[in-house]
Design a protein that fits this description.
This protein is mostly helical. The protein is built from 33 helices and 2 strands. A two-stranded antiparallel sheet has the order 1-2. Helix 24 runs antiparallel to helix 25 and helix 25 runs antiparallel to helix 26. The longest helix is centred in the N-terminal third of the chain and has 26 residues.
């Protein structure tokens, strides 16, 4: 149906290849923000998970209806696959969508043969310039006519040439939509009737092509007359389509003239078209066209009389007991709402106001949901408390508020576990408990929810809240990971193996090096992640001259990744802070270690020498990633755990450092003075030069590269690394 309604657009998230840098995930990867990650059939039946204010209208209406009806909605969810049709993921009304095999290649190849051109010549594709459904019908017709006993090469070729002319008409119409040219284009020729000496079947096929040529070319009076004649001809192979396509031609003519047609005249046209469509639906011999005709009439009403149609749909949808999916009313309504004046409708229809209130928060970019939150709370407070189901305005108030009043808490606690709104209410109860400082209560709510069977997005949300109120670094580690909901499927849930911004920000600025080491010891975390954490603790300890923490972190990394054992041993033997720092920086380059974490933790392996760069960090200074936000649908603030005093002191020192590229470059140049015979120096100087060619850089990056390049070519001019580094830029 969405194709019939002009295909309403659906608005719906790399590591550096060179030098210092880090990156973070798109938050919507981890929550079902614009559409549920619960299968539509279950969502339609009241399995809502945790609602999001950014969900599209069809989902929010479905949720409003489920909350209004309460638990019994599962017994009467509405038309089967209704939400699939409403959200545009399922079609099937007549010509506007075709499932199945793409048959265009066959038509193109046959057209090329007839036109005596190569199959890859763009001109050959003109035969499939029409909408996909029309092309599929043409391909099916070709197969049928070739199987006829009276089929000859001449007759089939003539049909193909005429079909090519139909394609020209489609292409000309498409070009006219986007062309700004003023010159007159060459005329294209319509297929001509076949002579009376040809069999009736072949003449009737040609009549159909002539009608299609007129229709696609916008000659609606001519196409209507031709299609009407086809529909009135007994035994015509396209008779079933005739009346329907004549109706479609008339609809297209009326819609094309909408900008110049007064509203009352459009209403009269709609009534005439309704009567014509009703005749098709009343004809039992045209049963295959009944549903396409109904869909076409709905499309016509939406385009020709959108104001009246939207008013009709709003009044219908006001009653949640009605089936919103029958005749795809919800899908039609959603499309029409794109151009509707919202404010008057909010005052007339509670469900419109409820949906708009949630979406006001989702679209609010000033950092606050205070206005929609206040409106939701007032609507809940002013309304009568329903019996047998939860008030949707209670749900909205909980979703948008940042303060938990006693009345809200009491009402939230009274929501039964069988209620469709239950998980949404419990999630926001945990969130509001956290914001109120009731951490024990927040933990209890989140822990209880996580014992149940949840969709990946819903589980992520509760893990976020549980992570935010963790009691220790080890406790936080148990809730660190998330599942990417984009990878979810009904058959197999995605693994919880990625980090969201909360974990990344917490690790970057919320932990001292010793705390990182403690986190790396959490055995329930995946081995690659533990190795990455141990590597970060090692780097930071070396930069901060914490030899004990550095040795312990290097030793743990060596146990997790034996290939790093030699570097860990070198670090343990190092006698001075400068030596320890150098070994850790070399290890970071050699094994791609980082002082921070990214959303994924690939296994720690040795990097190819020619691919190594200084990418262990970009900057230790604060950035937007760690800033708290008052969007209630954003991530909670990171937990305050571990040794806060040590963390603040360490960050103060780390913030003074250059990027990893600058730090490594300065270190290597100094190391060349103190250890001139180190065989790693040519390679390291090459790494310094290559690292200055992209990513996060310091102001002196060009000068640093020039120095490293000059030293490399002065001391080791014939080395492989000098040959690999001919230029400093």
């Amino acid at each position: 149906m969405k194709y019939l309604l002009a295909c309403a657009a659906i608005a719906a998230v790399a590591a550096n290849a060179f030098a210092s840098g880090d990156y973070g995930p798109s938050y919507t990867m981890f929550k079902a923000y614009t559409k549920p990650d619960i299968p539509n059939a279950r969502f339609q039946a009241g399995d809502l998970g945790v609602l999001q204010p950014g969900m599209r209208r069809v989902y929010l209406y479905t949720a409003w209806r489920a909350i209004m009806l309460g638990a019994p909605v599962a017994k009467k969810p509405g038309t089967d696959k209704g939400l699939d049709r409403a959200d545009g993921s399922a079609f099937g009304n007549g010509w506007d969508h075709v499932d199945g095999e793409d048959t265009s290649a066959d038509l193109v190849g046959r057209a090329a043969n007839v036109l005596n051109i190569k199959a890859d010549d763009p001109a050959a594709r003109m035969i499939v310039a029409c909408p996909a459904a029309a092309d599929a019908y043409a391909a099916a017709t070709l197969r049928q006519l070739e199987a006829r006993p009276d089929a000859t090469r001449a007759r089939v070729d003539a049909w193909l040439r005429a079909q090519y002319q139909v394609g020209e008409s489609c292409q000309r119409a498409e070009d006219a939509r986007y062309s700004y040219r003023t010159e007159k284009l060459p005329d294209i020729v319509a297929p001509q009737p076949l002579p009376a000496t040809e069999p009736a079947y072949w003449r009737q096929l040609r009549d159909y092509q002539r009608a299609a040529w007129q229709f696609h070319g916008g000659h609606y009076a001519e196409s209507t007359a031709l299609f009407d004649r086809i529909g009135a001809t007994a035994g015509h192979p396209m008779r079933d389509l005739g009346a329907y396509l004549a109706l479609r031609s008339e609809v297209r003519r009326a819609v094309a003239a909408v900008p110049q047609t007064p509203r009352d005249e459009r209403e009269h046209q709609a009534q005439v078209l309704d009567k014509r469509g009703a005749a098709i639906v009343a004809d039992a011999s045209l049963q295959t066209m009944h549903e396409p005709a109904r869909a076409l009439l709905r499309s016509m009403r939406a385009r020709l009389t959108p104001e009246a149609r939207l008013d009709e749909l709003n009044r219908y949808l006001d009653d949640p007991a009605r089936d919103p999916y029958a005749l795809d009313r919800l899908g039609d309504w959603s499309v029409l709402m794109d151009d509707a004046k919202l404010e008057p409708l909010r005052g007339q229809h509670a469900f419109v106001d409820w949906i708009a209130t949630l979406q006001d928060c989702a679209g609010n970019r000033d950092g606050s949901c205070a206005v929609p939150a206040r409106h939701a709370l007032e609507r809940w407070q002013q309304g009568t408390k329903p019996r047998g189901h939860t008030d949707p305005w209670l749900v909205a108030a909980l979703m948008l508020s940042e303060t938990l009043t006693p009345a809200l808490e009491q009402a939230a606690l009274a929501v039964d576990s069988s209620d469709p709104a239950y998980l949404t209410v419990r999630y926001h109860l945990a969130r509001l408990y956290r914001l109120a400082g009731k951490r024990d209560a927040a933990r209890a709510v989140a822990d209880a929810a996580l014992k149940g069977k949840l969709s990946p997005g819903t589980r992520n949300l509760f893990r976020e809240e549980r992570f935010a109120v963790a009691t220790s670094v080890r406790d936080a580690g148990a809730y660190l990971l998330r599942a990417n909901v984009d990878m979810a499927s009904p058959d197999a849930a995605p693994a919880e193996d990625m980090l969201n911004d909360d974990a990344i920000a917490w690790f970057k600025r919320g932990l001292a090096a010793a705390d990182m080491l403690e986190l790396a010891r959490v055995e329930s975390l995946p081995q690659p992640l533990r190795a990455r954490i141990a590597g970060a603790a090692w780097i930071r300890a070396a930069l901060l001259d914490q030899p004990d923490t550095g040795r312990a972190a290097a030793d743990l990394l060596a146990r997790l990744v034996p290939a790093t054992g030699e570097m860990a041993a070198r670090y343990a033997r190092a006698a001075t802070p400068a030596e320890r720092r150098h070994v850790a920086l070399v290890a970071a380059v050699a094994f791609g270690l980082s002082a921070d974490l990214d959303m994924a933790a690939p296994p720690v392996t040795r990097i190819e020498a020619g691919d190594a760069t200084a990418s262990a960090w970009c900057s230790f200074k604060p950035d937007r990633l760690g800033e708290p936000t008052s969007f209630v649908w954003r991530l909670p603030a990171t937990p305050d755990l571990g040794d806060a005093t040590a963390r603040r002191a360490e960050l103060g020192k780390l913030e003074q450092l250059k990027t990893a590229t600058g730090t490594l470059g300065d270190d290597v140049l100094q190391w060349a003075d103190t250890h001139p015979a180190d065989p790693e120096l040519p390679w390291l100087l090459h790494v310094v030069v290559m690292s200055t060619r992209g990513g996060c850089l310091d102001d002196d990056a060009k000068a640093l590269s020039r120095k490293a390049h000059a030293l490399l070519h002065k001391r080791w001019p014939k080395s492989e690394w000098a040959r690999a580094t001919p230029y400093f830029y």
